Amino acid sequence: xxxxxxxxxxxxxxxxSSIFGRFLNYLLTPLLVTIFASGEYGKISTLFTIAAFLNIxxxxxxxxxxxxxxxxxxxxxxxxxxxxxILITTVLLTGFLLLTSSTLAGFLEMPDHPEYINWVxxxxxxxxxxxxxxxxxxxxxxPRKFAAIKILNILxxxxxxxxxxxxCKSASENNKDNLFAAIYNPEIGLGYVILAxxxxxxxxxxxLSREFFKFxxxxxxxxxxxxxxxxxxxxIVGFGGMVNETIDRIMLLKLYPGTTDEAFSQSGIxxxxxxxxxxxxxxxxxxxxxxxxxxxxxxxxxxxxxxxARVMKFFVIACCFCFLxxxxxxxxxxxxxxxxxxxxxxxLKVVPLLMTAKIFLGIYYNLSIWYKIKxxxxxxxxxxxxxxxxxxxxxxxxxxxxxxxxxxIATILCYGFMMVLSYQLGQKHYPIPxxxxxxxxxxxxxxxxxxLHQAFILLDLNHWINRGVATLFIGLFTLLVLGVEKKEFExxxxxxxxxxxxxxx
Length: 505
Known about the structure:
Blueprint: H1 2-26, H2 28-35, H3 38-59, H4 62-70, H5 75-99, H6 101-107, H7 114-139, H8 143-173, H9 179-183, H10 191-207, H11 209-212, H12 221-255, H13 260-274, H14 278-298, H15 304-327, H16 330-333, H17 351-367, H18 369-373, H19 377-402, H20 404-429, H21 436-457, H22 463-484, H23 486-490
């Protein structure tokens, strides 16, 4: 239990940084959808989709390699090799992409703004140089500094966006002769969102300078070759993962049977509602921050498989609560996108599908430990490519027919496939005693509660009654979990006290 408690503690810290940081960042959504029409918001989404793809290329699995090899080799040697390699490739890739940015801008239907592409490339470069220092903090079990820097990054980002697009823009529109009005250039437009991110990334790297400069430029060819043989399949895993996460928005731009503006509008509506899966996304992200180094460190212990199974159980339970917390209160969460642009509300129907898909993805992340421990990353690459193929083929066929709804369905099919296949292969090569019947029961019950709540909404009663029923359903699910997992919760601090019998009077 001590290992799980430690993981839970680190997950809380990583979660605080993710939840607080992402919460502040997501607070920008109502602001941005108010300032920009759905088409312009779609452009923002597209630019950061490209950034997500570039992040995979730039890092090429070095973070996971660092955790894997630091468990069996001197950590300084591994850190020096990973950081030296990333430094070289970052400089080369950045130079190449900056030279070809105009071509990429044309492909993305933004030929008038190649500077947007240049800024995004610089963001990716700076974020890449921060990867290994952040990984070092995670490996050394220093989640507090990790969290502090991550939160500060978002505060700077959000603060600058508000400064440029609210303070300076308002001063400019009011024709005030002051410094704020002089700073704002309407031709930059949504570029201010990118510039704010660029500044935040630069400051983040400065704050990590102590960890960054701990490395010594070292390249041992034989050791580097050994690490690359492990990490290169992770490039495919990461790239395939990004395909599954983001390619749908690019395909919407290219395949939607309407004008370019209509396609950007579809992408904007889908992207804004995609962010309503925030609770599960934040939890999964926080969990992965702590789980990856934890899993590798636990791999040599006698009860590793049993520990992994218990972690999976708690993970699924937490995801179920996240699912209910969002889907049962969608009438409240929709205001997250603001009230001045109701066109975004039409996409609310994709949220339950995306939330379910995220649960499948989180389960897959847990399951993927088998091929990382067994050094079978190529198998993981094939699984991810299979999911990417489902995403691309389904979207290619159905986007012209269903629009962004096809993207949501493709997402759930993709992650469902990856989850099932990884489980089947994992049980063959590295069997783990997952309580699958119980876990699937929790997920099915959550889906049934959501369906019952939707049926109740059809009665067209007062919205406060609907929210009361939602709270009742969450309470019933809580009682169910507390009852079924009584033996587990009795061992835990604080919660365990609830199960202690009071002495007879």
